[in-house]
């Protein structure tokens, strides 16, 4: 992965974090900055996975890579949401 690829994945991650949050049912008790971070990480991991599967570079729009990025980010947002919400509830006794 090149520097340009990493930068692109991070920028796309901002959007993917928001999309991941939209595809999850219910309200996620995490701040938007954490959603962005998880989305960026999901985008990078999705790009790496697409490269390993050999589907990162295709003619036209890389739909498989985008779907992988959103899926990984959605799982990440769900996990972080559960952990963050549990931690926050524990503090408010």
Automatic annotation (TrEMBL):
Membrane protein topology class: Multi-pass membrane protein
Tagged with keyword Membrane: yes
Keywords assigned by UniProt, alphabetized: Cell membrane, Membrane, Transmembrane, Transmembrane helix
Signal peptide: none
Keyword Repeat belongs to the record: no
Ranges annotated as spanning the membrane: 6-24, 31-51, 63-84
Protein's cellular compartments: Cell membrane
Family the entry assigns: Belongs to the UPF0410 family.
Name listed for the protein in its UniProt record: GlsB/YeaQ/YmgE family stress response membrane protein
